[in-house]
Amino acid sequence: MMRNTRATQLLFELSRPGAQAVRLPKCDVPEKPLAELLPAGALQSQPPALPELSEPDVVRHFMNLSTYNMSVDTHFYPLGSCTMKYNPKRNERLASMPGMVDLHPYQPEATLQGLLELLYRSQEMLAEIAGLPAVSLQPAAGAHGELTALLTAAAYFRDQDQRRTTVLIPDGAHGTNPASAIMAGFDVKPVKSTAEGLIDVEDLKAKITPQTAVFMVTNPNTLGLFEQRIGEITRRVHDVGGLVYLDGANMNAILGVTRPGDFGADLMHYNPHKTFSGPHGGGGPGAGPIAVTEKLAPYLPVPIVVQQGDRYRLDYNRPKSIGRVRAFFGNVGVLVRMYCYLRTHGPDGLRQVAENAVLNANYLLAKVKPFLPVPHGDCCMHEFVASPAKLKAEKGITAMDLAKRLLDYGFHAPTVYFPLIVKEAMMIEPTETESKTTLDAYAETLFRITEEPAGLLHEAPHTTPVSRPDEVLAARKPVLRWMPERRDEG
Ligand SMILES: Cc1ncc(COP(=O)(O)O)c(C=O)c1O
Fold first, then answer.
1. Cα-to-centroid distance, 176 and ligand 1 (Å)
2. What is the pLDDT of residue 4?
């Protein structure tokens, strides 16, 4: 096995004194010394220590770097909870048309009618899919949608003169749920899961009080299971006057099959980058539209796109609104891609997306389960969580080892160590856009890896330019500037 070391050197290290990409012709106008053109304080005594390289050096360096990334366009990417489905290229093309990209948010509304109609129709479609009548397209990510919806709920309770302090969250929830609740000013109480991986309704009952503001639920949950008692759960929260928030990260499993509003949700967010083919970026730009019930609509952020006759306009005159949460109309480029996706599929197509996502996940589950236990059930929705806990006890092979070794075989790793309630969790979400051939190859590879020597797996990946960086340090203390003295720190 060969570690891929092409271009792991930085441009500064590749620098060769005197190398040049461009040679400019001799100046044909009279030259003046710099000292006459710039104040003394702006002049440096030494030229900056920039790398010196030829054009092919630079092009090869960046082209090589670009091949190091794994993406849905290059690899199978079953990153559980993230729904890394293939994004049709036509959505990109439509969103890049001059009529879209040349618009400016400060244009008068009369000249933005096409875009406003697109946004209005998007609101309508999201409302229909949610079974909730009012939509805001403003939030910039799922987590931002959570925060915006919780601020909307807080404004509602304030307006009703109700002092409610607590948000209840299942222990399998995504970390953004408690983070959003705390940011919105609530206290958080965790609710336990049962051995089957569903919400422990007895624990929930014990924790619901008149102070309960919101119960945040992910359905299907982060184990890929549909909360079968969701009707009873939402009724119990409503009985004390609380609201139910649906974390819509897993909407891909239920599109057109059931609607959050129909099973009792009062608020929810969408993750268009998971469900509606928005690009996944390193934290953005994204979108996290929210949908709410009629009684919560007055508190949504401004502006909302409204229709008046055959015209569309931005409505800022909403006195109970929580105000703005994002500049202009939200991340419009992502919303345009979402609109194209929704219109391309239509109601039947969306339902088929969900059905195929569930079918693919169950096919892969059936292939993986014989050699890698899946502690919570033989049947899943759009994803499942496998656990090499036994492999760890017997051979010392961890979820991280398996995940890292998959990279050597050209597969992206699944999500690992989430949800926290499963030991050595490996959360696998194939999505509907993968073929049977790919799923078979993935399952066979995973099996082959579980048979490999532990020592080999502990050192994996072996073929990537960097093997196992310190992921926490890399995220918390990134070294973004050329500092030769720190080169060895990685
Ligand atoms: C279950 C769940 N909820 C919420 C989020 C947050 O969404 P975003 O990444 O768009 O902020 C995620 C993201 O992965 C998720 O998986």
1. 7
2. 58
